[in-house]
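Quick one, probably user error.
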């Protein structure tokens, strides 16, 4: 079901080609060089979080950033961008839909004529789709799930379960203090916990994985790579395989929290830290 957002400005279209130019000239330019006709539109709304314990974001083309703040509501800021002679129409046809389903808020990019974007990635037609970049701000204790296809995913300061999934893009997580699941295909993964290790499952195909946590973490690890190295700043790991596939399984400090890392083309790095400096994501 849909629900009413907090009061916020209406979407504001912005054009890189100014309307002061004669319409005939604009039309001629669009036909002559459609790749230069850039259009963008901002979506910005806030939503109450009473009874909500999870937020799910589904995108196709564009980055997603999860920001933690101390306000009691959810804020969704998104920018739709399109190029070409049909850029303005693509922006109108690309919908950002926010709905409430039980204790979950769903934020979805709806592509033209093809309805929901997930389930099957089928939006055919052969034409270029709009890009949508998201910045989602919400309290630390709300669980978050992100799915996108082409785009980087970042998050910081979460204290509830976090699941981040992309196909073509890197993933970066800072100051995590809750269970974590990360999956990408083409991209590196960089995870830093705010203190001791929490349960984490991290998987990529083409990219390295780096995980940083406090040196007194209690870890039960399962680390695998095919074309890469396994490195650790903790006690020496039991790495098997000198050439080709390598794996390491064992425990550190009694092994309470599970850490599973798998990559094909890339290194696996486990870093120990006394304390982690608080940093802002770019």
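Nope, works fine. Designed sequence:
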């Amino acid at each position: 079901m849909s629900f009413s957002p907090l009061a916020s400005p209406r979407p504001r279209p912005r054009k890189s080609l100014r309307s002061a130019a004669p319409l005939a000239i604009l039309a001629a330019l669009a036909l002559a060089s459609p790749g230069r006709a850039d259009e963008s539109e901002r979506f910005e709304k806030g939503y109450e979080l009473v009874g909500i314990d999870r937020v799910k974001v589904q995108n196709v083309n564009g980055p997603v950033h999860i920001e933690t703040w101390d306000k009691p509501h959810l804020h969704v800021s998104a920018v739709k961008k399109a190029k070409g002679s049909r850029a303005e129409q693509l922006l109108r046809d690309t919908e950002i839909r926010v709905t409430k389903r039980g204790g979950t808020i769903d934020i979805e990019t709806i592509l033209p004529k093809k309805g929901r974007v997930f389930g099957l990635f089928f939006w055919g037609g052969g034409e270029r789709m709009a890009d949508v970049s998201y910045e989602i701000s919400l309290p630390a204790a709300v669980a978050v799930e992100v799915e996108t296809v082409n785009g980087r995913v970042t998050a910081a300061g979460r204290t509830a379960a976090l699941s981040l999934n992309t196909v073509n893009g890197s993933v970066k997580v800072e100051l995590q203090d809750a269970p974590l699941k990360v999956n990408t295909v083409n991209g590196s993964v960089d995870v830093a916990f705010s203190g001791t290790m929490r349960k984490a499952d991290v998987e990529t195909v083409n990219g390295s994985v780096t995980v940083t946590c406090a040196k007194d973490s209690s870890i039960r690890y399962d680390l695998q790579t095919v074309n890469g190295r396994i490195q650790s700043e903790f006690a020496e790991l039991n790495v098997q395989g000198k050439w080709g596939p390598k794996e390491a399984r064992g425990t550190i400090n009694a092994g309470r929290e599970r850490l599973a890392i798998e990559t094909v083309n890339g290194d696996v790095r486990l870093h120990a830290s006394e304390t982690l400096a608080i940093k802002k994501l770019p």
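The CA atoms of residues 61 and 150 lie 5 Å apart.
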